[in-house]
Amino acid sequence: MTARTLLRALVLFALSGWFALAGAAGLPESVRHALREARIPLENVAIWVQPVDAKRPILTLNAGRPMHPASVMKLVTAFAAFERLGPTYTWTTRVSTTGALVDGVLYGDLHLTGGADPLLSFERMWKLLRQVRALGIAEVRGDIVLDGSALRLPAHDPAAFDGQGLRPYNTGAYGLLLHFNTLQLTLLPAGEPGAPVAVAASPPLQGLAIDNRLVSTGGACDVWYRDLGATLEAGPTGPRLVLAGSLPASCGRRDWSTAPFAPQQFGTAMVAALWAEVGGAVHGTVRVGSTPPESVTLLLEPSPPLADVVREMNKWSSNVIARQLLASLGASESLALDMVAGGAQVAHAQLAAAGIDTDGLVIENGAGLSRIERIRADSLGALLLAAWRRPYMPEFIAALPLAGLDGTARRRLATSPVRGQAHLKTGSINGVRALAGYVLDRKGGRHAVVMMVNHPAAADSLAAQDALLEWVWAGH
């Protein structure tokens, strides 16, 4: 390192410390007090607040320091998708065949070719297979072949992040993703302790046996899912999902979920079950494979528009939708290692083209479920302001949870005057708590707000975040 480079680094370090002190000097006392109570140093906090019609922020703290945003990173994915694809963009699933149909019998294979639709639910797949039946196909004298090659993806280990490989939030992207790769379990505890908990599973998955060992207990309904566990075992006739633990009867009905299979196996199991449900027969198997280029199209199933996909992603913080979007963005980057890496490149480029500083930006999967993703608070703030000026602004904002009312923010600020006045994307993993979005103050002015906390006690920063939002609402 040259003397000039060393001097420049020292000056920048000193300036960053000065700006941090300057920002801390203007920090609302309510926020400062809440952070002090949580024992979180100011150096572990980044804040950025600016009215959408102003030229500069009214409050900053460490805003130029790259921080882990957790699920707030989904705002980057959403912005890049709107910029590159547009709010009306759709994905298409194709049904085709190379066989001949004679008297209700298809002599050949039936192909389902994915287009990376993020919202291809089991209800929509059931309808699509019902349409196949309506075309006169009652029996397939071949195989039903599922083609998920639309996305060129890196290897994915669902247990790599936290060892919880059966949790749906750890599911990776896939070209023919069905029902978010999620088995939904409706739990109905009995009225007396020790009695079994009834379980209703959907969608149907052919070949999966459910071994229900859940029991009802007495007591209050606290963290209701704390004592629930799911494991996948090899059974005598195939895979067996073992559900063990207890659920207080006072909880009533609860919805739980798991991801027992990788997306490829989940898809074949679901399609096999649904094809039987609509009255279809298949002489071969339901398997993963490629679609021949000469296959003849029977049906095309378009997805909901991107605006609806982003709304589903951000309202409920869906990691798998974020992964699908990032990979879809990478489809145009043929020189990238894979479409996830390509999607990260596209996201960087789209932000830069919008005049957003990407220095310090690190994108791994676009969902925030990562230990390495980073972004600066001022970059997030610039993104919020840029989205505010875009034609798709209504769709971008409407996709964010409304504080105290819906989505992942439905329990936030429920008794505060901010309730219903803030559209917020929140994020939380171990050591990280973040939020970013828009707050309408009591005079009708709208502000873009960002706050990120990276500290072992980040989970205790909720009061400080709420204090910041109430400060903005009150008009400073």
Walk me through the structure.
The chain is α/β, with parallel strands linked by helices. The protein has three domains: 21-88 and 307-473, 3-Layer(aba) Sandwich (Beta-lactamase); 92-155 and 263-303, D-tyrosyl-trna(Tyr) Deacylase, Chain: A (3-Layer(bba) Sandwich), CATH 3.50.80.20; 183-258, no CATH class. It is 29% helix and 24% strand. The chain has helices at 3-25, 29-37, 74-85, 122-134, 263-277, 306-316, 319-329, 339-353, 377-388, 393-398, 462-473; strands at residues 45-51, 59-61, 92-97, 100-102, 105-107, 110-113, 139-140, 144-147, 183-188, 198-202, 209-217, 228-234, 239-248, 254-258, 281-282, 286-288, 296-302, 422-429, 432-440, 446-454. The protein has a five-stranded antiparallel β-sheet, sandwiched between helices. A hairpin with a 7-residue loop joins strand 1 and strand 2 (59-61). Helix 3 runs parallel beside helix 7 (319-329). It is globular, with a radius of gyration of 25 Å.
